[in-house]
Structures are given as structure tokens and as C-alpha cells.
Write a structure and sequence with these properties.
118 residues; mainly beta; 4-stranded antiparallel β-sheet
Length: 118
């Protein structure tokens, strides 16, 4: 069973907005901190946003996206989101959602492409 189904990627113009969604199944979503990673061609995978488990009271953002991206979660529908505003060409990458707790298995999405281009 695929743990995540990602959606919302695609082509967006510089300065535009995009929202990625990652719907989870098969594990206790609410109990897991959630992260969004991205990886561009020839670069290492990097974490861009993180949200704590449960109500998601704590968040963290990479400096490169701080003030532009927002991570959120809806435990009622087992989904984590990444709202991307004021995107630029450096945001072009394959984006992955990730669930990893202090113990237990780790889950990855299949990756969804975001391309920023005019």
C-alpha cells in the first residue's frame, strides 16, 4: 500500500503560488511529525518545512523558503499541505512528503514535480 498520494504540482510562473497536498493512509498519521523535502537535479535532497505531530503547533522552515511557504495538516483527512507563495526558479524541484517519528517506520511520498518558469 502506498503510504502517500501527492497532488498539486505542476508548472507555475515566477511570483505565483501553488499548493501541494499529501494524503496519507495505512499508518497513524496524527502521531507523526510531517516534513516536506525537495530535490532538484544534481542536488541533495533537502528538508524545506516541518510540522510537529498532533495539532502541529510547532513548525520549522528552511531559510530559503521562510516567509513564502506554509506547512499545515488536517488530521481529519490525514493530509499535509505545503502552500507555496512567491515562487522563484530556485524552487523548481521534485517535492516529497515524509513522516518520521522517533521510533517506528518512516514513510515517503512518491514525489511530485514543481517547475517554476515563465
Amino acid at each position: 500500500q502506498v503510504p502517500f498520494v501527492e497532488s498539486g504540482g505542476g508548472l507555475v510562473q515566477p511570483g505565483g503560488s501553488l499548493t501541494l497536498s499529501c494524503a496519507a493512509s495505512g499508518f497513524a498519521f496524527k502521531a507523526y511529525p510531517m516534513r516536506w523535502y525537495r530535490q532538484d537535479v544534481g542536488k541533495e535532497r533537502e528538508v524545506v518545512a516541518e510540522m510537529s505531530a498532533g495539532g502541529g503547533e510547532m513548525t520549522w522552515y528552511a531559510d530559503s523558503v521562510k516567509g513564502r511557504f506554509t506547512i499545515s495538516r488536517d488530521n481529519a483527512v490525514n493530509t499535509v499541505y505545503l502552500q507555496m507563495n512567491s515562487v522563484n526558479v530556485e524552487d523548481t524541484a521534485l517535492y516529497f512528503c515524509n513522516a518520521r517519528a522517533l521510533s517506528g517506520p518512516e514513510y515517503w511520498g512518491q514525489g511530485i514535480q514543481v517547475t517554476v518558469s515563465s
